[in-house]
Write a structure and sequence with these properties.
This protein is of the alpha+beta class and 181 residues long. The chain is built from four helices and eight strands; from the N terminus they run E-E-H-H-H-H-E-E-E-E-E-E. Helix 2 runs antiparallel to helix 4.
């Protein structure tokens, strides 16, 4: 063997092994065109797999973001639902207060606390549902009954017993209303 035909294995030191002949290489690896075609197929598979993984990752990120927004919205709606009875109590107390109590300086503090609660709800994105005089909508109103009304058209809300609230498109609490006949 000549120096060009000898292959040195580093693990065995200087032991000689015969180099494969060009015919052996061609038989085991195929022609260059076949090797190139196989490499291109593998590259295409790898690219497709990478693109699929990228798409799955982007979809997972979108799902996570959507779930995060929904969870935040649900938490806000639950918190607002817990505050609404307090606001109702404030409104009933202020409406039923006699004029002598309304004249007291501390009563303005009660009104201020009520406004703060309403500002908190507004900051959370909670809106009150306008009902009086509006057409009855079972999606946002809960009818307590019908009553005759000279100043309201039939099918419109004639009286509101409890205000309704929404957060975006979600109804937190429907308005309790009477509907004109």
């Amino acid at each position: 063997m000549t120096e060009n035909e000898r292959v040195i294995d580093p693990a065995e030191g200087e032991a000689e092994q015969p180099a494969p002949s060009p015919a052996d290489v061609a038989e085991t690896n195929g022609t260059l065109e076949e090797q190139l075609a196989a490499a291109r197929e593998e590259a295409a598979r790898n690219l497709e797999g990478w693109q699929r993984a990228q798409a799955e990752f982007a979809n997972a990120r979108k799902r996570y973001e959507k779930q995060r927004v929904e969870a935040f919205s649900t938490a806000n709606a639950e918190m607002a639902a817990k505050l609404l009875p307090i606001i109702d109590d404030f409104e009933r107390a202020m409406e039923s207060a006699p004029d002598t109590v309304r004249a007291e300086s501390w009563f303005s503090g009660i009104e201020l606390v009520h406004r703060k609660f309403l500002n908190i709800l507004e900051g959370m994105g909670v809106e009150s549902i306008a009902s009086l005089g509006q057409p009855f909508d079972p999606n946002i109103h809960e009818a307590l009954g019908h009553e005759s009304s000279a100043d309201r058209e039939s099918g419109n809300v004639s009286r509101e017993m409890q205000g309704g609230y929404r957060l975006g498109d979600k109804i937190i609490r429907p308005a309790l209303v009477y509907v004109a006949e």
